Amino acid sequence: MNDLAVRSLPLVLAYLLWASLPGRADDWPQWLGPLRDGVWREDGVVDRFPPAGPPVRWRTPIGPGFSGPAVAGGRVFLMDRAVEEGASADVKTRWDYRDKTQGQERVLCLDEATGKVLWRHAWPCAYETAYGFGPRATPTVCGDRVYALGAMGDLWCLESATGRVVWQRNFVRDYHAGVPLYGFASAPLVDGDRLIVMVGGEGQLVMALDRHTGRQLWKAGTASEPGYCAPLIRTLSGRRQLVIWHGDGLAGLEPESGKELWSVPHHISLGIAISTPAIADNRLVVSSQYNGAMMLEFRPGETAPTVLWQASASSAPERQWKKAGFNTTMSTVLLFDGHVYGVSLYGETCCLDGDTGQRVWTTLQPTSGGTEPRERWSTLFMVPHGDRVFIWNDHGDLILARLTPAGYQEISRVHVLEPDMPSTGSGGRLVVWSHPAFAKGCLYVRNNHEIVCMSLAAPSHPLGGEGNRNQEPAP
Fold it and tell me: Rounded to whole angstroms, how far apart are CA atoms 376 and 261?
């Protein structure tokens, strides 16, 4: 058994238990999949893409947004935004300006097999956020309920089959929280009968609600900024705990009570704690745009982790490759086989030694290509599958590659979607900044105009030959 398999064993055992539930084994029901660890464990997937590209099963027009899809129970859920033509708007698309627009936020439910819109739930929502295109958070599906969080703090519990409202909260109205610069973005987390959300404000950084009624169960923590990172639950130091990353650092809490078990100060500039921590065995690593990467180690007999190393590559393009660290904005951070993989600000894709943070290799191949960094806020969403990694870049390309200490090995690449969102200012390059879902042998991914389902199943798989089953009219 290799090192990755050993490190992943607790999550794999949990997945096997989860997969034994009827009809759930191949779903991607929340941010980063069934276990919120960003690993695709399904069999029957292609070894490489065919010359003409994998078949597209369907395409459905949607509105703009960053919300990734969730796939569960034969349905696809995502969020978007609808703005009427001629509606009042003040939009600059800058990192330091809150765009102001009038419109509606929506939760959409599509048929997984055809892409047909089954229901929509919409509500009026005036925006005042930077990059005010649409909702950020991926919906969370649990059985007959779907939980959706809008950019301005609207939290909805809906019937997954019909879209009927079960209960609703608003973080600003109900808890007097301030709207972060980039809006609320942390995907809700279901833990038994609890729904755990990042709210912000004095003594209520993180909150647990009864997921059936919306009643507050507990609240905990204070931070200068709640950040944008989704909470997750892992077993560390032999104890099951809620792990959060906010603008002032990281913490572990009791999921049942919110009691703090440990905290590590790590102030993040502008509060942009975004990427979900990568956790393997007894280590946890995060990375941010301005503050670089940090590795924590949980040692036997110690509840609080030790900072093993910190390494920043700075936020300037690397004219010469740095010797340590990387500074990621939104990209996935991976931790396996004793190494860390991630992307620095201008697309420098790196492998670090997990013990020291030192660079093992650097390449631009999956991002801009060439030999000199030139694309700011370059983003990769990386999803391991066996000994390979599916990589979604912000050009709208899907890449199949291997990441090892020996280097980056690209196997296949296909262009799936056109980038259609300006990354900064009126002259910014166009990008796709939405995390894909992988389920039912397929890729589900969206830009600001459409969501696409592409089959990645091997020819022998039941979905291997399907394509172009639906062209849904604009919603």
Answer: 37
How many domains does one find in the chain? Answer: 1
Residues 358, 362, 367, 373: what is their CA dihedral angle, to the nearest 10 degrees?
A: 100
Per DSSP, the three-state class of 7 is helix
CB 144 within 8 A of CB 158: no
Q: Which residues pair with 61 in a beta bridge?
A: 450
Q: What is the pLDDT of residues 4-18, one digit of tens each?
A: 444 444 444 444 444
Cα angle at 242 between 240 and 245, to 5 degrees? 140
Q: Can you give the residue range of the structural domain that contains 80? A: 3-471
Residue with tokens 């300037």: 316
Scan for tokens 């960053």, then name that residue: 66
Report pLDDT digits (tens) over 433-464: 999 999 999 999 999 999 999 999 998 766 66
Q: Are 259 and 253 in contact (CB under 8 A)?
A: yes
β-pairing, 232-236 vs 239-246, is: antiparallel
| CATH code of residue 334 | 2.130.10.10
**Among candidate residues 134, 132, 168, 222, the one with its CA nearest the CA of residue 448:** 134
Nearest by Cα to 260 from 246, 238, 244: 244
Give pTM, 2 decimals. 0.92
